[in-house]
Amino acid sequence: MNRFEYIRPATVADAIAALNETAARALAGGTNLVDLMKYDVAQPSRLVDINRLPLKSIEITSGGALRIGALVTNTDLAWHPDVREKWPMLSSAILAGASPQLRNAATTGGNLMQRTRCYYFYDPSTACNKRQPGSGCSAIGGVNRIHAILGASDSCIAVHPSDMCVAMAALDASVEVEGPEGKRSIPMSGFHRLPGVEPERDNTLKVGELITSITIPEPDFGPYHTYLKIRDRLSYAFALISVAAALRVKEGIIQDVRIALGGVAHKPWRDSDAERSLKGERAGTQSFAQVADCILRDAKGQGDNDFKIELARRAIVRALEQAAAGTPQDQADKSIH
Amino acid sequence: MNQIPHHPQIPISLTINGTLHELEVEPWVTLLDLLRERLSLTGTKKGCDQGQCGACTVLVDGKRINSCLALAVSRDGAEITTIEGLAENGELHPLQMAFIERDAFQCGYCTPGQICSAAGLLAEGHTHSRAEIREHMSGNLCRCGAYTNIAAAVEDVLMPRIAAKEAAE
User: Is residue B75 domain-shared with residue B100, that is, in the same domain?
Assistant: First the structure.
């Protein structure tokens, strides 16, 4: 681990001032950042320990939205009674990820900021455009079983590893940030980005900006949702494919639908055209298969991960079937119905 | 590695197994290394040192975390319980007795982390079945593969507590 300056601000304003330096990093739970520092993948000049900031509350706004402080732990969010009742897909997605120990330390803001688990990104002896811009991508033509099938570029085929963010994408969350130029709200769809020619940028945060909270409107899907995660072992593994799906159906006809995919791209993947094409259709395996084909119309394998295209197709259909039946995936009993 | 002229020492206080420690640590020292190397509390094990195996699990303010991924400075003021602090008045913790009774280990290296993790699980109150025990203990790997007996040991302690709680309600 490199040597760094350690600062522990008491206010958001002091934290923003301390973060206004390219190589400064905010330290929250540390479950990803400390790990990356041990590998010399992250080498911050300054760590700004934000754990004393007053960003730890979960509130329901006057408009009925969920406002989650950036420092709320993944555990506290997943088991919060209001979240279990009204945002159960979010709770389910969080509990599908990591382990209880990690969820006890990891925070909501930190989960948004976690970096890819691409093996080459983690290995400083290899070329990686995300870790060292311009050095090349070892995953293209290398071992790429876990890599992207949608939205990749010639520079990077890494995927975003979060489960929580996939549910947040499906639920139209907004990320509230504060920086040297004031406050702004970033829609979840615009927070993470595709790699393009700048894969070193995971998201659209600017230097000095700090996530303060995440806001999620109250969904109207009732029990008609699921978070389905497919991985190499039953627990404690990153998704090969995950699907957050929610439906509103009236007399067999789809009124509204949300589908977000994890494990497929550099960001949680939503496709509003595909979702729109499903509205007015009869809910059933046939329409679900059509929308899966639509979402995956531009999917491209890299060799080792070619199987993920068919896996994603089947996972989308299965997730929509679970959502339509009002039988969300249980994250402890792993059998998939 | 960056060379800097001096190593800053940050003053922190930690209550570890009931004893207050006033310490000065460099900001890059993990809680795990502090426990093992500075305080000689070697019951907490360094397995992967990457948050993947759970051998370093301790309780911080009653909640289980991976001590290898926690910088000690960021836990200033916390109450920490390690495997050395679970026994009370010379009596083993019920989980320690259950692990012995069920022979829930082979080499024993993951055991302190397994037991601290299970102590966290009991306090959380979200676990009600064997399937949930397995899921909620999934952050602790056992390369000897003693999982069946580990789950049985946790179940031996958990189930009577659930029954007692239900009887009281």
Answer: no
Last residue of a domain, one of B68, B85, B102: B85
Identify whether the C-beta of residue A55 lies closer than 8 Å to the C-beta of residue A212: yes
Which of B38, B29, B32, B80 has its CA nearest to residue B55? B32
- Same domain for B102 and B81, yes or no, is no
Residue contact B138–A235, C-beta within 8 A? yes
Q: Which of B7, B27, B69 sits opposite A105 (nearest CB)?
A: B69
Based on the fold, state whether residues B37 and B102 are members of the same structural domain. no
Contact residues on chain B for A49, CB-CB shorter than 8 A:
71, 73-74
Asked if residue B4 is part of any domain, the answer here is: no
A3 to chain B: closest CA residue = B2
Same domain, B101 and B78: no
* pTM of the complete model beyond 0.90: yes
- For chain A, give every residue range classified as CATH 3.30.390.50: 225-325
Closest CA to B119 of B75, B77, B58: B58
* CATH number among 3.40.50.10420, 3.30.390.50, 3.20.20.10, 2.60.40.10, domain A225-325: 3.30.390.50
Neighbouring-strand partners of residue B14: B21
**Which residue type, as a one-letter code, is found at position B89?**
N
CATH 3.30.43.10 fits A5-49, yes or no: yes
SS3 A249: strand
CB B136 to CB A51 under 8 A? no
Phi-psi region of A303 (alpha: psi -120 to 50; beta: other; left: phi over 0): left
Note down pLDDT in tens along chain A; length 337 residues. 999 999 999 999 999 999 999 899 999 999 999 999 999 999 999 999 999 999 999 999 999 999 999 999 999 999 999 999 999 999 999 999 999 999 999 999 999 999 999 999 999 999 999 999 999 999 999 999 999 999 999 999 999 999 999 999 999 999 999 999 999 999 999 999 999 999 999 999 999 999 999 999 999 999 999 999 999 999 999 999 999 999 999 999 999 999 999 999 999 999 999 999 999 999 999 999 999 999 999 999 999 999 999 999 999 999 999 999 999 999 998 889 8
Domain match, B76 and B138 both = no
What number is the ipTM of this complex? 0.96
Q: Do B139 and A38 touch (CB under 8 A)?
A: no
Contact status, residue B128 vs residue B163, Cβ threshold 8 Å: no
A contact set with B (CB within 8 A)? 1-6, 8, 27, 29-31, 34-35, 37-38, 43, 47, 49, 51, 75, 79, 98-102, 104-105, 235-236, 331-334
Task: Note down the domain range covering B36.
Answer: 10-85
CA distance A283 to A251: 9
- Chain B CB contacts of A72 below 8 Å: none
Contact A38 B49 (CB under 8 A): yes
Token pair 């494919």 is found at A241
Number of domains in chain B: 2
